[in-house]
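Batch manifest, entry 17 of 40.
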Amino acid sequence: MVQYYFRNAEGAKIGPVGAEEFQQLRDAGDIEDRTMVWHSGMIDWEPYVAVQARQELAKTPQPRPHRTAAPATAPATPSAAGGPRLACGTCGQDWPEALLSMESGRPMCGNCQRLKKEKEQSGRMSNAAGVGGWGAWLIKCACGLVVISALIFLRLHLLEGEKAEKAAQKAKLAQKGAR
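Output type: structure tokens
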């Protein structure tokens, strides 16, 4: 059973709600076309109108290309809802075919797509300069050394300033004492 989450006008996350309750909220006007919605199998939050369009498209029979070889994934099996189900080519979980997309010729569920996207983004962040492995480590060490050097320089500069201030105070006291 699909569980929906949505964001209200204030941006607060509401859910999970079942399909029936979700439809009642839609009919009541609580969920509009621009309301951000998410359910399992999706990569990210989307406006309801996009989710609805995808669901309508999934209901429309799509022509299948003729295959001469056996499919690389588990064969489609009828689901409780009456639609075919396929195994995700990455995690192996059984999903309604409408919730899967094709990645490199294999069906992939939204959860695996999200994980793949997160992995790619974290790889880009840690590898922003195009340097990996030892090169990235050396860059991080060099940056650390620069920061440490700057802190040591500032500390020494402040100490010299304090010493000069104390020397000036001693000189003033000595002058006052000599008078």
